[in-house]
Amino acid sequence: MPKTIIEKIWEQHVVRRQAGEPDLLYIDLHLVHEVTSPQAFEGLRLTDRKVRRPDLTLATIDHNVPTTDRRLPNPDPLSAQQIETLRQNTKDFGVPLWDIFDLRSGIVHIISPEEGLTQPGMTIVCGDSHTSTHGALGALAFGIGTSEVEHVLATQTLPQMPPKTMSVEVTGKLGPGVTAKDVVLAIINRIGVDGGVGHVIEYRGDVIRDLSIEARMTVCNMTIEGGARAGLVAPDEKTIEYLKGRPYAPKGEDWDKAVEAWKALVTDEGATFDTYVTLKGEEIAPYVTWGTTPAQSVPVTAAVPKPEDAVSAAAKETAERALVYMDLQAGTPITKIAVDRVFIGSCTNGRIEDLRAAASVVKGKHVASTVRAMVVPGSGLVKKQAESEGLDQVFKDAGFEWREPGCSMCLGMNPDILLPGERAASTSNRNFEGRQGAGGRTHLVSPEMAAAAAVEGHFVDIRGYK
Amino acid sequence: MRAIKTVKGNAIPLNRADVDTDQIMPKQFLKRIERSGYGPFAFFDWKKDPNFVTNNPAYAGAPIMIAQQNFGCGSSREHAVWGLEDMGITAVIAPSFADIFRNNCSKVGLLTIVLSQEDVDYLMSRAEELPGGSIVIDVAAQTVSVEGTGWSRHFDIDPFVKHRTLNGLDDIGLTLQHADDIETFEKERPSLKPDTSGAFKDPLKIG
Ligand code: SF4
User: Fold this and answer.
1) Beta bridge mates, B73
2) What is the pLDDT of residue B203?
3) pTM of the entire structure?
């Protein structure tokens, strides 16, 4: 029977199948960070259990770290305690940790692909909903809660019901200035924040094929914002090219064997999905969110929509609440919205290509006097690479703050936060109420759009921007 | 996890759609390394509004919450479930839930019950008008009933989750009964897959 890539990867990982029970799925790689793991390790201690496969587990510290000089003491005692707890836990249980002084540390979803640990056909989990990012390399990767973290630590497996499958096809070609971020915002706008519930998505079509691997990560990253736990892109020549020579990629003869196995990971001709969605690449414009869910977005050329135009009574109510929270009037053109802060970074858009794109927009220009703007590279290696290309200098000359890697203002668990009432253009993934700081207002955009907003002090259409 | 057979009591009407886990448990409380004590922090920012529903003493200690579609979306933080659990909530009724949140609830022992929009709207307005009105959830029979009326609805629950919920079974313990299967699988697992054991070596120092 013809199968989708999703079903193929799933089948390859079923340890045990019993009617009336979820499948027991083997996990190839378990990524761990400081925020969602302390209670899981504690659970192991209480039940006298060990980590079954420390050699399939990797920990890092990203959510809590200050993005200023790391040699200074952590200003927040609770953060410091949580970080110290992870150090102790990884030591006690023999789990490898890339600590903050290791160049390879950084946002968990950036460092694993970067080192070639994320490979096609793997099952990858992490106590973090943006684990879907790893799908860009053809892995089945999804976020889990802390109880499940404990489960994977103890057993290297997870009981899971087989998901429904969804094909999201983006056909044609993107116009100039339109990025992967706009593609995924357009997809979420189309399916809604719960459109993908119960599904795993395969992203398909010429637009997806044309995207670089890093750009595919941006798309897969935000899969969860459309309700689906995982989204992936079948491996192709770009995937193989990306992985070649990375530290954890197979070497020599193993490489050839692995490549052969990866090439079989495609959806068979005639395989069917439970749900189909198609978008035309030509119709996608640079998107800006105006509300408090990632689906509340419009093209930059549009205006803040009227709640009355919402599709349902519930959507109308959510829109009304969002406008109050965001302090916006329906009918205001997006390009008339002024911003106070700009954040370039996160697991959505904190990779080297994102920084290059933003730098090319700000080069020779200066951040508006009304704006405070910062760039937070996604990992130590991204930062180093950017510095070797002189991007840090471009940003600094333009008046951006150039910071140490971490999650930073994406969720504001460290001191990088919005103050109440502040409005930000952000390249991150969530515009929920208070996400970047209590009372803060977030507009999600691409790195290019964020960079231009920093310079102009308000949103501009990057397509006509010089 | 705790066993749940029935839930009986009044319900908190949280009449909002797409309630995300950032609202249920804001980030600043995720720095705690404890597993308990999250109740006071649940809905921390929304609670600053004196009119927010959980501030109404009539709902104090209610074991049920009625919510709208896509409840628990966003971040995977289980702290959101721990917050509801610690508030005394044993069941949430909504037209739909986000996947990860629902999964987390099933591990902790918090019932997530899906009813039709119409039924949720009925329970919502009843809970708003009659804050003390009692609802009975019978897990074995898979029913939600409004006490003192004939109103009763069937709900679906995954049979395995039902079994674990009724008996309070530890998921990890259940899986470890199949340790043999895991070992067999590991023996046959392709050796090409990466492992992290080399990650200890050669730290690339900053600076
Ligand atoms: S960058 Fe943001 S979304 Fe990504 S892992 Fe960190 S906090 Fe989560």
Assistant:
1) B20
2) 65
3) 0.95
Kindly report, residue by residue over B62-73, the tens digit of the pLDDT: 999 999 999 999
Element spanning A297, H or E: strand A297-299
- What's the CA gap between A172 and B78, in Å, rounded? 40
Name the residue of A105, A346, A403 to mutate for ligand 1: max ligand atoms within 8 A of Cβ. Answer: A346
| Cα A358 to the center of its chain, rounded Å | 17
Mark out the alpha helices in A115-272 (DSSP H runs).
146-155, 180-191, 206-210, 213-221, 237-243, 252-263
With a 6 Å cutoff on the Cβ, whether A65 touches ligand 1 is no
Rounded to the nearest 10 degrees, the angle between the axes of helix A352-362 and helix A447-456 is 30
CA A323 centroid distance within chain:
26
Mean pLDDT of A446-455: 98
Give the angle subtended at the CA of A298 by the CAs of A367 and A143, to the nearest 5°.
Answer: 85
pLDDT for A367-383, tens place per residue?
Answer: 999 999 999 999 999 99
Length, in residues, of chain B: 207
Distance CA B122, CA B116 (A): 10
The percent of residues in chain A predicted with pLDDT above 90, rounded, is: 94
CA separation for the pair A441, A420 (Å, rounded): 8
- A29 alpha carbon – ligand 1 mean position (Å): 19
pLDDT digits (tens, 9 = 90+) for A251-310: 999 999 999 999 999 999 999 999 999 999 999 999 999 999 999 999 999 999 999 998
The H or E element that residue B8 is part of is strand B6-9
What pLDDT digit, counting tens, does each position of A256-268 carry? 999 999 999 999 9
